[in-house]
Amino acid sequence: MSCVRIASLVSKCLVDGDFSNYFSTIPSALDCPEPIVLREGGFVRESRIEGEERGTVPVDVLVVREVAADAEAVAIACEQWVRSYGWERHSECWPWRVVGVDTSAPLFDVRDSSGRYVWKFTATVTVVRAVG
């Protein structure tokens, strides 16, 4: 059984909300003019008890659009969807069990080398995993 990346769970959530075009790095404007990019950070343990540990995994969600207002609107819609998503249905994904998701407010990040606007928010996913 392979280890599920938390960014994959966020991607599935966004697909359920009809958001698409996911990448782990911002692709060329020729390859995909308006992607959503997911960047997963590392697991940070917050507590450990016998048999399990709890911590967080940050997933940055970058919305890239040609028009600034579109980038902002899609980022806000994505963040609201992720925050209100029914995570209980997808809480068991070996080796992780999702116990909570918090999001930051979307904000303008940068203009990329193609001149596209990038808006960003972070989904901080609280997970539990069994340890031996």
Give an overview in words.
It is a single chain. Strands 1, 2, 3, 4, 5, 6, 7 and 8 form an eight-stranded mixed sheet that branches. The longest helix has 17 residues, at 68-84. With 132 residues, this protein is an alpha+beta fold. The chain has helices at 6-16, 68-84, and strands at residues 22-23, 36-40, 44-49, 52-65, 92-93, 96-103, 107-111, 117-130.
Number of helices: 2
Helix proportion of residues, in percent?
A: 10-25%
Main beta sheet strand tally, sense and closure: 8 strands, mixed
Q: What's the SSE pattern?
A: HEEEEHEEEE
Task: Kindly state the number of beta strands.
Answer: 8
**Gyration radius, to the nearest Å?**
16 Å
Main attributes?
8-stranded mixed β-sheet; alpha+beta; 2 helices; 8 strands; 132 residues; single chain
Question: TL;DR?
Answer:
The chain has 132 residues and is of the alpha+beta class. The chain is 21% helix and 42% strand. Strands 1, 2, 3, 4, 5, 6, 7 and 8 form an eight-stranded mixed β-sheet that branches.
Secondary-structure blueprint:
Layout: H1 6-16, E1 22-23, E2 36-40, E3 44-49, E4 52-65, H2 68-84, E5 92-93, E6 96-103, E7 107-111, E8 117-130
Parallel strand pairs: 1-2
Antiparallel strand pairs: 2-4, 3-4, 4-8, 5-6, 6-8, 7-8
